[in-house]
Specification:
single chain; 255 residues; Tumour Suppressor Smad4; eleven-stranded antiparallel beta sheet
Length: 255
């Protein structure tokens, strides 16, 4: 007899996720996160991102099951055959972005972003930004609600809502996407190689304060942000017949 798969269940605090946690705990043995071979995340995409962030240092793969609304990064919730589904799952590796934010107070804050790093206006006035890519100034005066750098995994989230492109995971591309740009008018953004080093400086920071957000980590009143792909890895597991690449293709053909 083979040993049972060592699973740890991580649920959000919603009624749906707590009900799923109770059902799974009655069906399968659970171990501490330190001993787990795989973590099963229960909730929506927010819970999946939180769990992936927690597992970055451990390298433990995460199999998500949707107990929320969108659930793009998660699999269908089912109690039966969970161990078999995990054993047959396709693994996807995501390299998060590393953000270094320089605040007006002089502090430097580091954070990871699996979806995107966003710079957003804090007040009624638009943000005024300058953008460098690999040491070359590409935009000297972007006036907009903000701008983001998105990973392929994050390209289907905020980036897509802001009009950015959907990017396959294997493309080694990042999306640089403006948020409601006023100048340059109709600037669609840019596609960058994943090795690109991006620096964004806030112009007129006292008049036009800006926040930097890496997934759920927000730093207010920043003066500059540096963004690059990190060496860390997040490991996602998808059901064999519903892999990430298939989901990305479906999104691009459904109207």
């Amino acid at each position: 007899m083979t040993d049972a798969l060592k699973m740890h269940f991580a649920a959000s605090d919603t009624p749906e996720a707590e009900k799923a946690l109770a059902e799974l705990s009655d069906t399968y043995p659970s171990v501490s996160v330190e001993k787990a071979e795989v973590v099963v995340a229960l909730g929506g995409d927010g819970q999946m991102l939180r769990t992936l962030h927690r597992m970055l240092d451990r390298g433990t793969p995460v199999f998500g099951m949707n107990c929320g609304s969108v659930g793009f990064l998660l699999n269908e919730y089912r109690v039966d055959e969970l161990e078999q589904r995990i054993a047959e799952a396709q693994e996807v590796i995501i390299r998060p972005l590393a953000m270094k934010a320089h605040s007006e107070s002089g502090a430097e804050i580091d954070a990871y972003a699996l979806n995107e790093v966003s710079l957003l206006r804090q007040m009624q006035q638009s943000a005024k930004l300058a953008i460098w890519v690999d040491g070359v100034m590409r935009i000297s005066d972007l006036i907009a609600d903000g701008v983001m750098v998105a990973t392929p995994a994050g390209s289907t989230a905020y980036n897509l809502s802001a009009g950015g492109p959907i990017i396959p995971l294997q493309a080694n591309i990042l999306a640089l996407t403006p948020i409601s740009p006023f100048r340059p008018q109709r600037w669609p953004g840019a596609l960058l190689h994943s090795s690109s080093q991006v620096r964004i400086e806030v112009l007129e920071p006292h008049k036009r304060p800006v926040s930097a957000v890496a997934d759920s980590t927000e730093i207010r009143n920043v003066r500059a942000v540096e963004i690059s792909e990190s060496d860390a890895e997040a490991r996602l597991l998808f059901d064999k017949d519903a892999g990430y690449n298939e989901r990305v293709l479906r999104m691009q053909f459904v109207r």
